[in-house]
Amino acid sequence: MAIYLQPESFDFSTVQLESLFIEEFVPHAPILPLKVYLLGLQLLQKGQNPDLSVLATRLGTETKDVREAFEYWRDLGLVRFSASRRSEEEDIHYLSVRDLFLSNNYLLKKPLSSLDRGELYNELFRYVNEVLVSPATEIERSSVIDYLRDKDVPKELVREAFRDHAMQYARGQKVINTLRYWNDNGIESLEDLEAFKERFNLRQLNYKQVLSALGFPYTAPTKADKECIDTWLDEYAFSMDEILEKIRDITMNKRNPSMNYLHAAFRNEFEGTPRKTDTKEDLSQLSDDELLARYGIKR
């Protein structure tokens, strides 16, 4: 039995698009960069060499937005900018996604061991993919496997890291960064992770309580804010009730105290140092000689 391909009645043209591009980049790409990339690819495959203004007109946007879209793809390694011989603007070259994949995964300093390519990691990613809408891609698998070599990381933690970044761009690198962060904080099991997240969420609530007490309930804490509050709770060992009560007492006498002022107040209380009063020293009882000596004036 022969198999035939029905010829097309009309030639509307087609675009040749690499499967790796769809798997690795389409799920996470912003809309405008995706439109720019596809339209430029279509015109190039038709034998045209469009400039930025042509793409901007076709897409109903500004030329600078089209350039920013290509800069997005340049940063990912899918296009290259070069000096143009015809104009002051740079030329843009589309690069092969397959070449990018091969250069990132097969030009390694040392080959992967047989263990890396064995059933151990296949089983791991079957376990990970159970919680993912979009399964881990080959690039993600390779980068995560490279990080996991010579490390004893439970598969439950790997799956949780993928779950946390399930729908994010550059998922593989973010998973690696998360696993490294957890390792630096001594997290070795799901129980450790749950306890860590509980402490983290409680501390975020503490930051919000302090800022709310100061009249800023919708303001995100700065790094300095966090460092001060962490010191009050961890080093000075004040409870949240004590902190909020002291802030209430301070704000009754001073409007909008700075975090630096509050930190000094808590430090003084922790060290047992009394606060300075705002009363002025009575100098009326001093003699003229004593007054001159006080200010370092010689007769």
Quick take:
By secondary structure, the chain is mainly α.
What does this structure look like?
The structure is a single chain. The protein has helices at residues 19-24, 31-45, 52-59, 63-75, 97-105, 119-129, 138-148, 155-164, 171-184, 190-213, 223-235, 240-253, 259-271, 288-294; strands at residues 79-82, 91-94. By secondary structure, the protein is an all-alpha fold. The chain folds into three domains: 19-100, Arc Repressor Mutant, subunit A, CATH 1.10.10.10; 113-188; 193-271, no CATH class. Strand 1 and strand 2 form a beta hairpin. The longest helix has 24 residues, at 190-213. Mean pLDDT is 81; it is low at 107-116 and 275-280.
Largest sheet: 2 strands, antiparallel
Largest sheet: spatial strand order: 1-2
Number of helices: 14
Tell me the CATH topology of the largest domain. Answer: Arc Repressor Mutant, subunit A
- Tell me, briefly, the overall form: elongated
Helix and strand arrangement:
Elements: H1 19-24, H2 31-45, H3 52-59, H4 63-75, E1 79-82, E2 91-94, H5 97-105, H6 119-129, H7 138-148, H8 155-164, H9 171-184, H10 190-213, H11 223-235, H12 240-253, H13 259-271, H14 288-294
What attributes characterize this protein structure?
299 residues, mainly alpha, Arc Repressor Mutant, subunit A, 3 domains, 14 helices
